Amino acid sequence: MTVVRPFGRLVPRIDPTAFVADGAIVIGEVTVEEDASIWYGCVLRGDMGYIRVGARSNVQDLSLCHMTHDDTVVDIGQEVTIGHQVLIHGARIEDGALVGMGSVLLDDVVVGAEALVAAGTLLTPRTVVPPRTLVRGHPGRVVRDLRPEEWGAGRETAIRYAALARQHAQDRALEPVQPPPTK
């Protein structure tokens, strides 16, 4: 069951074209912009500051967004891809970036536009990832500039996920499939 609810006077704002999957939890001051998607099992808890998921961005299955009370926020730009099981705690991810599966982004991290954070990367507080670079490791370090053909990875995946979200939303509106009878 999807949970979308206020926290005190803080009310989620979800664009009608956005997709919030079954089992996601969206609480408090959270904005989900047009054609963005929040996938199965995600938690976006805007009870201590705001969370914004920009247009056509996706936060994939089992990811968590939160922040430090009155100190940091989560700001995800447009056409950003956040992979499965990512923890974002008070970080900013700029337009077109891609954050790989299982990564951890801590308070005051900034991931530059069209940057790529490799799967499993740990970005410690106040790390700044320059635009169009590849960062990886524990702690994450910039390893190289991205090649021109790599710049669009976050945006391309985001556009594919926007289309996939529309399919999931349509299928959710259909009658549930009945399991086959047992013998």
In brief, what are we looking at here?
This protein is mostly beta strands and 183 residues long.
Number of domains: 1
SS content category: mainly beta
Shape-level CATH architecture? 3 Solenoid
Strand content: 35-45%
Helix segment tally? 1
Shape: globular
- In which range does the helix fraction lie? 10-25%
Main β-sheet: number of strands, strand sense, barrel status? 12 strands, parallel
Poorly predicted ranges (pLDDT <50, ≥5 residues)? none
In CATH, the topology is named UDP N-Acetylglucosamine Acyltransferase, domain 1
Oligomer: single chain
Work out the radius of gyration: 17 Å
Overall pLDDT confidence: 95
Give the N-terminus to C-terminus distance in angstroms. Answer: 30 Å
CATH class: Mainly Beta
CATH superfamily: Hexapeptide repeat proteins
Number of strand elements: 20
List its traits.
single chain; 183 residues; mainly beta; UDP N-Acetylglucosamine Acyltransferase, domain 1; twelve-stranded parallel sheet; eight-stranded mixed sheet
Task: Please give the structural blueprint.
Elements (H helix, E strand, L loop, with lengths): L2 E3 L7 E2 L4 E2 L4 E8 L4 E2 L4 E11 L4 E2 L4 E3 L7 E3 L4 E2 L4 E3 L2 E2 L4 E2 L4 E2 L4 E2 L4 E2 L4 E2 L4 E2 L3 E5 L2 E6 L7 H20 L11
